[in-house]
Structure formats: structure tokens, C-alpha cells
């Protein structure tokens, strides 16, 4: 079997050198990148396949190396080179901002673009396995995960590279090249001044474990080195939780196993339950745990997106995954919590109880034109809601469907037309105004009805 090839920027020390050690030991051909004028003794000691020199902000030196590597398939590109300059609101300078954007954001873009032909060669060689671009980012680049402020230039440069990766994921998907970003943890390196709570070997071991498992379905995602996804922005579920906690509702939040709960826990909801909407046993366990608890409002928000597949590229797995999450999941959850909704409806004799399913205008058969798997699964949800509306109406439970628009969330890779908090405020307004006579209807978050 032919050895695979990895190119690692910033590989003379720290995380980059540890990546070089890992892949050398794993039998890969390692192309290490050293900055012009920097020492590369430790990298050379590994006897890598090749050591090249360029500054990731210098287009001329990048182009020269790209020419040197012409015709060599690169299976994995790791954009690791980076700099860190601390700075608060009063101390951050324009030069600090521009320099960190240049190295941490522009650099990975230039390197990836220059080596695109090498990545394409590898993707063609590897068939379904394709090729992969990994950019080392930071949780400081997570807008949804920002709790402490400060670090303006570093955080902004990493948020920007996350967005660059999001666009790369879209543009490179047709070439069977995936692109992800990873958070290495707070690592003991020169960049952190020797501080940190994770050593390079542990960080790289975790990141390479993530890399080994990545498929095209993961392109565009942001992973913690421990394996879970990181928030790029606020999701709708979290914004719903914020809204109702602020209104002093008892909020019961559900989350998938392994999800990052920091932002949710910070809100102090009444209860957090781990549940997978596609796993009937976990849904039933959740229902048992909530037995006897009236639920005034059930919001079925969990969703997934396997990609913008067309007629040729949509797979059976894409279709089945989205049907399971978008149609089967809400059905199982609503049915299992029907006794709780009925308890609330009896308690609220005038208002009753409500079920709200989050869907998309893409699922409107009359006006929609979205990706096959996503649109079809949401259209199936509409029919399920229509049937539920009829069956639950005698119990004074209304069921509606809401289109949140194209929102900035992890699902949309942070591309957006509207922000989650504003959209949630609008959708809650619709829910509050809905009456039993509105059951079965499909609303846009701006208030108008959408045709089925």
C-alpha cells in the first residue's frame, strides 16, 4: 500500500513538530514546513520525506514551494502555523489586528489555494476517501463560546479562519476534499509562553483521532481535540432556552450524547437530559424520567444536514439519516411526551398545550427547491404534524410548524440571513399568538403562512 503524504505548516516546534512525529511514526510521508531563517534541527532529526521553506504570508515563497511540489499528491494538509498577541480593548493596536489576520487567517487561505492541485491529485487517487484540509484554530474563535471577552486580535483572526474554512468546505466538496477546523486545547507551547493545561502529545493524539474519523459529511465542522463539535455561533435551541429562562419558564433541555454543554449549563435550565431523537430507547428513557411533569410547550428543534446533494450525489444514507432525525425523531418525541402535554392542557384549560416543529421553506412542495434529503425529510415532518394536529386537537393541544429562515448556526456553518436570538423572539411571538384554530399551520418566522 502506498504511503500517504501530509504537509504540515509550522512544523519545527510545538504542535506542528508533534504532528510531524505522529505521522512519521505512522508511516506517512511528511512534508515539513519551516519559516525562512528558522531552525529546523528537530524536524530534520525525524528524517521527513521533505522539508520546504516558506512564510505562510509570503505569496511568492508559497508559489515557489507549490512549484517544487508539483505533481505530488497531498492527502492531508495541516494549516498549523500561527501567532498569538494578547490584547484587551485599550491595548489592542491596528498592527496587532492586521498581523494576526495576516498569519492566522490569510496564511491558511493562501497555502490551501496554492496546494489545491496536490489535494485534488490525492482525492482522485483515494477515491471515496478523498483528501482533507485541517486548520488548527482555537475556541477563542468560537463566537458562541466567547464568555470572557478580550483577546481581540487573536480571537477575531481565528473566527475569520473558521469562516474561511466554512467557504473552503463548500467550494472543495465537489472535488471530494473535506475541510475542518480543530481546537487543540490550551497547549504548553512557545505560543502560550509555556503555560497551558494540555501537552502537545495529548493534544495531537486527540486531533489525529478526530482526523482519522472525518468523512465528507463532516466537512465544515469545528472540532475540539477531545472529539466533540465546537459552537461556531449560537444555535436556535440555545436561543430558545435563553428566551424562556429569561421569562422564568422551567426549561427542560435535551442534548445529544457527547455534545458540548458549557453554554447550555451556563443558563442553569431546570433539567438537562441526554437524548438522541433517532434512538427510540433513549427517547423512552427521557419520557420515563419526565413522567408526571406537565409540558406546556414542546419545541422539536433537533436537526441535521448531510449536504446540498443533487440528483446524482444524494445517497441512500443521506436520505435515511435526515428522515430519521427530521421526521421520525419529532414523531417519537411528541408521542412519548403526549401524557405530559395532556397534563398541561388540563391544567391550562383556556390555552391548552403547544407543539412547535422547526422546519424549512425548502420543504414547501409548492415553493421549495432545497437539497433532496433535507427537503424531503422536512416535507415528511409536515405531514406528520398535519396528522398530529388532527389527533391532538380534541385534547386541546395545537401543533404548528415554523420556518426560522436561514439562520447563523452550526447547521448552516454560520452563513446566515438572520441571527438566532432575533429569529427565536419572532417565533415565540407566533407560538404565543397561536390558538387551537391555527393547529396544523406552517408559519414563516416573520409571521406569514407558508403554503404546504
Automatic annotation (TrEMBL):
User: Where does the chain cross the membrane?
Assistant: none
Report the CDD domains cross-referenced here.
carb_red_sniffer_like_SDR_c (cd05325)
Any GO molecular function: oxidoreductase activity, acting on the CH-OH group of donors, NAD or NADP as acceptor
Family designation: Belongs to the short-chain dehydrogenases/reductases (SDR) family.
Name of protein: Short chain dehydrogenase
Q: Which organism is it from?
A: Phytophthora palmivora
